[in-house]
Amino acid sequence: MIRIGLVDFDTSHVEAFTQRFNHIDVAATEWVEGAKVVAGFPGDSEIMPERIAGYTEKLRGYGIELVEKPEDLIGKIDAVMIESQQGKRHLKRAEPFFKAGLPVFVDKPFAQNVEEAEKMIALAQKYKAPLLSCSSLRYDPKVKEALDLQSKYGKLLSADVWGAAELHPGNPGLLHYGIHGVELLYSLMGAGCEKVQMTSTLEGEVVTGIWKSGHVGSVRGIRAGQYGFGFVAHYEKGNVPFVIEGAAFYRELLKVFVEMCKTKKPPIDYRVMREIMVFIHAADTSRAKHGSIEKVK
């Protein structure tokens, strides 16, 4: 049984992940085998500090051991999940676990900028500590369904994604919630975006990317009106809409993390994880320059 540690409790993910790993307060269809949350560090938060006390009590009630410092988890766990909502905290939080050679999951956003993402990748490689960072939506069953439909409709050429895009100064631009849509786009189209352009208002935004193939993908971020997530996949022989419902993506993400802990092989190429951060930075630059076209490099 793989022993999981959680760091920072300002997100509902600490409760949702514990429920699925530990088979408690969630339907049996959502259970994930092979790992168990055994300890955690509640931490603090600049984004949602009001959440920490409630999730701390919830996890204490689930029998999770609580420690006073993140490093106190080392020796008690076999893998760690860095859960702080704030990207700028992730490098510091993750570094001791990389150095201990533990498998590391870093929740979205990966980092506050490309440079810190690169530092985490370098640490993972140096200490042979497998690293995964992504939005859980990457593993929603609808994404797999869309990719599998290539056997029917031909190659998936491009996609248009829509989803919630709440803003927060602690995670500027797409880093806070828009990153979910970016992750979906990359899950469908893969790496290779060369140029990005963004139009943004208080009510929403549209980010357009041009891939090396010449195909165009987009993310529409919604801040007014009905929230949710979905996409239209464009194939050689058809166009198919998908709406993401429920929370099966948590279960599927955790399965992937457990497999990484077993094999020590990252499920996402580090170059893709880095490119997503570059895409987000380029989009933010485009927004600041009133819709300029920016290179993804």
Structure characteristics:
Rossmann fold; 297 residues; six-stranded parallel β-sheet; seven-stranded mixed β-sheet; Dihydrodipicolinate Reductase, domain 2; alpha/beta; 13 strands
Brief overview:
With 297 residues, the protein is α/β, with parallel strands linked by helices.
Number of domain modules: 2
Record field, number of beta strands: 13
Major sheet: size, sense and barrel closure?
7 strands, mixed
Strand order of the largest sheet: 12-11-7-10-9-8-13
Fourth-tier CATH superfamily name of the largest domain: NAD(P)-binding Rossmann-like Domain
| Fold-level CATH name of the largest domain | Rossmann fold
Structural shape: globular
Strand fraction equals 25-35%
Q: Which segments are poorly predicted (pLDDT under 50) over 5 or more consecutive residues?
A: none
* H/E series: EHEHEEHEHEHHEHEEEEEHHE
Computed CA radius of gyration, to the nearest angstrom: 19 Å
- By secondary-structure content and strand pairing, the structural class works out as alpha/beta
Tell me the number of helical segments per DSSP (H or I, 4 or more residues long): 9
Report how far the terminal alpha carbons are from each other: 41 Å
Query: What's the CATH class of the largest domain, please?
Result: Alpha Beta
How much helix is in the residues? Answer: 25-40%
Average pLDDT metric: 97
